Amino acid sequence: MSVTEVQTTHLLPVDTKGLADLAEAGKQDPGKINTLAARTVVDKRFRSLTYVRDLEPLVVDEPPHLLGDNTAPAPSEVVLSALGACLSVGIQANAADRGIALTRIELELEGDINTTAVWGVGDLDDDKRLGFSAVRVKINLEGDASDAELDALVADADRWSPVGGTLRNPVDLTIAPV
User: Fold this and answer.
1) Which long-range contacts (CB under 8 A, 24 or more apart) does 142-151 make?
2) Domain limits of the chain?
3) pLDDT tens across 98-143, in order?
4) Is the domain defined by 74-169 classed in CATH 3.40.50.300?
């Protein structure tokens, strides 16, 4: 390949028939709710293993400044990871639906979080905001589409992201001992 040639490698395509079938099922039963499940077991100190379906466990740990062993992402980093993955799936699905071949999807995520409550043993001011106070996502897309079409993919992925919606909207959360 000469220096002036550009190599374009498209990402593996999404199953457009399967995507169309999923879309139709959603239109036929718009109120359907799926229940997802996970089981988390502490491995050692702050390191935990979360089991989902029949997959290998998702390992989560804390960084050294939060007394962890730094063997895996921290829980809040996993939240950022979930958002990035969810947005990338939405981008891919919308691109497939519109016949856009993508060559690159790269997301950079940052989140601002106050950890001074130290899980309930540190600064316990009742007005303290827990969780992320801000999350920023930068998305670099490349493909066989105009900038406006790529921007529309990002906008739709943002609008319809289940993880993005979870971060934006109040969620009924119940935590209880068994």
Assistant:
1) 142/102, 142/103, 142/104, 143/10, 143/95, 143/100, 143/101, 143/102, 143/103, 143/104, 144/10, 144/100, 144/101, 144/102, 144/103, 145/95, 145/98, 145/100, 149/98, 149/100, 150/100
2) 36-72, 74-169
3) 999 999 999 999 999 999 999 999 999 999 999 999 999 999 999 9
4) no
